Amino acid sequence: MNKKQRIKKNAEFQTIFKKGKSFANRQFVVYCLNKEEDYYRVGLSVSKKVGNAVVRNRIKRYIRQTFLEIHDQVFPNMDYIIIARNPAAKLDFHETKKSMEHVLKVAKVLKKKSL
């Protein structure tokens, strides 16, 4: 993800937490907020309770790669914050991608796949 697609500032996180809608499954919580720009931004949060640095960084890598693979299906004019829960530490990449797609479908921010 390039720089304009990242959410890093605490104030931006807090705005999305306060004004956005949250959706969850067992592994992830997703906060979504509409915005004016025509590109999406993603913020990641993985608590120290989830695992050590190696595990947390692997989860973040998997989430970033998932967004790269489904970027054409995600609504572009939104901000997303993904919070990883404890069970996410035990997932491999394909399970992570499946779980992320599930929670994004629950949030109704995934476009239908074109066959």
**Which overall shape is indicated by the principal axes computed on the Cα atoms?**
globular
Number of strands: 4
The number of helical segments is: 3
Structural class: alpha+beta
What is the typical, i.e. mean, pLDDT?
Answer: 92
Secondary-structure element string: HEEEHEH
Subunit structure: Consists of a catalytic RNA component (M1 or rnpB) and a protein subunit.
EC number: 3.1.26.5
GO molecular function: 3'-tRNA processing endoribonuclease activity; ribonuclease P activity; tRNA binding
GO biological process, one term: tRNA 5'-leader removal
Layout of helices and strands:
Blueprint: H1 10-19, E1 21-24, E2 28-34, E3 41-46, H2 53-70, E4 78-84, H3 93-106
Parallel strand pairs: 3-4
Antiparallel strand pairs: 1-2, 2-4
Account of the 3D structure:
- The chain is α+β, with helices and mostly antiparallel strands and 115 residues long.
- The protein has 3 helices and 4 strands.
- 37% of the residues lie in helices and 21% in strands.
Identify the notable features of this structure and list them briefly.
ribonuclease P activity; EC 3.1.26.5; Ribonuclease P protein component; single chain; 115 residues; nuclease; RNA-binding
What is this entry, summarized?
The protein is an alpha+beta fold and 115 residues long.
